Amino acid sequence: MKRLSGFMAVCLLLWGCAPSQPSGEIMSAFRTFLQNVRAGDMVKVSATAPFLVSLPASQKEATLTYFRWLADKDPASLHLFVSHGAGSSWLLHVSAPGEKSAIVVTFLRNVDGRWVMGPAVKAIQHIDIVPAR
User: Fold this and answer.
1) Is position 2 within any domain?
2) Which of 8, 39, 90, 128 gets the highest tally of CB atoms within 10 A of its CB?
């Protein structure tokens, strides 16, 4: 019986230490990305968002303009939520307080094991519906 309880204790310890969801890592990677956008470090920005390299100049600038706008916000005020996407991808939902629009950014692990943004960044706009009287 002592062996069984010891085995159960080890199993519970290992289960408790296992990473359940990489939400903290993804949020940290995104906050670091915003710091790099604010600093203008395009090498680090491109390392986290490799899809930017292949975008036409106008789309790249429009995307960076939005990320600069987010980077100018207080990082603690941003609403970040991570959910599981398809396969091995994860979705980061980002919104700023008081804004009716948000974005969803796909994150994947690259070959080096780092979290990088996938090529899909989707804008979500919330529309308030007010019933007629």
Assistant:
1) no
2) 90
